[in-house]
Amino acid sequence: MAGTTGGVTVAIVDDHPVVIEGIQTWLSEEPRISVVHTGESADVAPGIADVLILDLNLHGHLVIGAITTLAAAGQRVIAFSQFTEQRIVLESLEAGACGFVAKNEGRAHLVNAVLAAADDRPYVTPTAAGVLVGDRDASKPQLSAQERSALLWWFQSMSKASVARRMGVSVHTVDVYIRRARVKYAQVGRTAPTKADMLARAIEDGLIAPDEITGYESAAR
To answer: Where in this chain does the record put each Response regulatory domain (predicted)?
Structure first.
């Protein structure tokens, strides 16, 4: 589990103090979780906590774009919102959120989502499940270009260090891309715990063609 002492650190971003106080009360009942930051702005440094609970509507504006930025930098984000329209839930998950929790789903779902995110495990709430079941494309997760590139080169028997050099990013970021792809598959009920499982899923969905999985020349040559 994430956290330097075995516990999970959490940051809360919401523009209503009463909501922040309520979340803090909920989380305080779970000894494995500690809140280390609260605020009203999504402009926070990635890594501020193991898990960031982010209200999607801050000061009258949707901040789904902030999920993309934070997730790309390795921050685990849980989208927390009173808005549960299909578009908003799907866009949040596709942007890289580890999970979506509606504000009316209560303490247990939020705590479970936090603990699952910290362990890089998927957790699908009833709200998210309903949206995914109703989405005709839900069985085929939407991978970002970066996630697809990381998977393609990884599948070509490259080490993650080699993939990182090819992409011009850190090994940690490559891990983030692969982890996000794995979580997206698990969110639609198609778990892929191993590299071979991930490859099979990607080929099944046409995300990667079999002839793309070929040998490669070292970038060092």
So the answer is: 9-118
Q: What is the pLDDT of residues 87-117, one digit of tens each?
A: 899 889 878 888 899 999 999 999 999 998 8
For residues 20 and 38, is the Cβ–Cβ distance under 8 A?
A: yes
For residue 216, with 0-12 CB atoms within 10 Å meaning exposed, 13-18 middle and 19 or more buried, which class applies? Answer: exposed
Residue type (1 letter), 166: R
In a domain, 73, yes or no: yes
For 163, other C-beta atoms within 10 Å of its C-beta total: 25
Confidence (pLDDT) at 217: 42
Question: Is 28 found in the same domain as 125?
Answer: yes
How far apart are the C-alpha atoms of 83 and 41, rounded to whole Å? 18
Nearest to 63 by CA among 24, 15, 21: 15
**Beta partners for residue 61, in sequence order:** 58
